[in-house]
């Protein structure tokens, strides 16, 4: 006779998490779209249908065919290969920029919540100052000093993400510092840093994960915008925003040159937003319980 288990194992919790995900249309659709473009980006490191950087004037503006799946541009570049490399660049820039924002913003926000007083006020006012300069303005200032490029785009987008994560983590942490289990941790002799690491961060991780997906999608848009105005990824490396910019003069003759990278941007951002909505539903206790009930009924 099997004895009932009082505590679930990590594998059971993981199985339950993904089981709830299967009952969330946003999570499934967003996850599939995101996975598709991430797979394209990873595949571009080892294989592309054609050399995306080689110029072949004889095959310029070719329509879709078995040789060129999405056709070619005005220089004879294979569009599908360029979309693959563009996915790699856009995802890499957005991912590193969000990592910078979270890596600096979360410690600042939790530290401000833990210390309060002038420390809290100083960090929040610094965040207000950074918010006054959007990513595109920051990129222009950085470009004026160091020149255009993907690294400068990463720095600009990353700086703009810092106050976003700082404000979110501070607000969530402040609501926890008045809870009974935090008082118990203080009475046990734990300091602010240890309480933040052991108790605050695990309890706000769900919010940070959801916000990370949202900022990731905004990072894709920001990178595309910076590349569109020539401040992001520089030729010959392709970028979705750069492809849109170069397609302007060919809209009447070859509209697919703008439609294809535009759809790539739209679908990637849509997938990440749907994934974020699905994660929020799965991690929210009230909505999560309804998903659990729905899943149990379906089974």
Polypeptide structure, described:
The protein has 299 residues and is mostly helical. The protein is built from eleven helices and no strands. The protein has helices at residues 10-22, 25-43, 79-115, 117-131, 135-146, 150-176, 180-187, 192-228, 240-246, 256-283, 285-298. Helix 5 (135-146) packs across helix 6. The longest helix is centred in the N-terminal third of the chain and has 37 residues, at 79-115. The protein is elongated. The two termini are 24 Å apart. 39% of the residues are buried. Residues 3-8 have low confidence and may be disordered.
Mean pLDDT: 87
Question: Structural class, from helix and strand content?
Answer: mainly alpha
Task: Summarize the amount of helix as a percent range.
Answer: over 70%
Q: First CA to last CA: what distance?
A: 24 Å
Give Rg in angstroms. 23 Å
In terms of DSSP E residues, the strand content is under 5%
The gross shape turns out to be elongated
Largest sheet: none
Strand segment count = 0
- Number of distinct helices: 11
Order of helices and strands: HHHHHHHHHHH
- Uncertain runs are 3-8
Q: Can you tag this structure with a few keywords?
A:
disordered N terminus; 299 residues; mainly alpha; 11 helices
Report a brief summary of the structure.
The chain has 299 residues and is mainly alpha-helical. It is 73% helix and 0% strand.
Set down the secondary structure blueprint:
Elements: H1 10-22, H2 25-43, H3 79-115, H4 117-131, H5 135-146, H6 150-176, H7 180-187, H8 192-228, H9 240-246, H10 256-283, H11 285-298
Helix pairs in contact: 1-11, 2-3, 2-10, 3-4, 3-6, 3-8, 4-6, 5-6, 6-8, 8-9, 8-10, 9-10
């Amino acid at each position: 006779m099997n004895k009932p288990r009082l505590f679930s194992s990590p594998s059971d919790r993981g199985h339950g998490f993904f089981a709830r995900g299967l009952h969330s249309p946003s999570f499934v659709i967003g996850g599939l779209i995101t996975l598709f473009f991430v797979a394209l980006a990873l595949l571009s490191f080892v294989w592309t249908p054609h050399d995306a950087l080689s110029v072949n004037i004889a095959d310029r503006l070719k329509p879709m065919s078995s040789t060129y799946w999405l056709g070619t541009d005005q220089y004879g570049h294979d569009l599908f290969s360029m979309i693959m490399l563009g996915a790699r660049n856009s995802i890499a820039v957005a991912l590193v920029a969000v990592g910078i924002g979270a890596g600096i913003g979360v410690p600042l926000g939790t530290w401000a919540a833990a210390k309060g007083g002038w420390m809290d006020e100083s960090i929040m006012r610094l965040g207000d100052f950074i918010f006054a300069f959007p990513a595109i303005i920051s990129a222009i200032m950085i470009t004026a000093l160091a020149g255009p490029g993907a690294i400068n785009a990463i720095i600009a987008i990353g700086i703009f993400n810092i106050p976003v994560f700082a404000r979110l983590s501070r607000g969530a942490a402040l609501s926890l510092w008045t809870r009974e289990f935090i008082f118990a941790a203080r009475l046990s002799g734990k300091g602010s840093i240890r309480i933040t690491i052991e108790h605050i961060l695990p309890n706000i991780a769900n919010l940070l994960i959801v916000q990370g997906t949202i900022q990731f999608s905004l990072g894709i848009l920001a990178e595309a915008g910076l590349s569109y105005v020539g401040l992001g990824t520089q030729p010959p490396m392709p970028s979705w925003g750069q492809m849109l910019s170069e397609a302007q003069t060919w809209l009447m003759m070859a509209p697919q040159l703008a439609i294809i990278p535009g759809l790539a941007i739209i679908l990637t951002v849509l997938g990440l937003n749907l994934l974020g909505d699905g994660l929020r539903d799965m991690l929210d206790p009230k909505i999560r319980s309804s998903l659990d009930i729905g899943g149990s009924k379906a089974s």
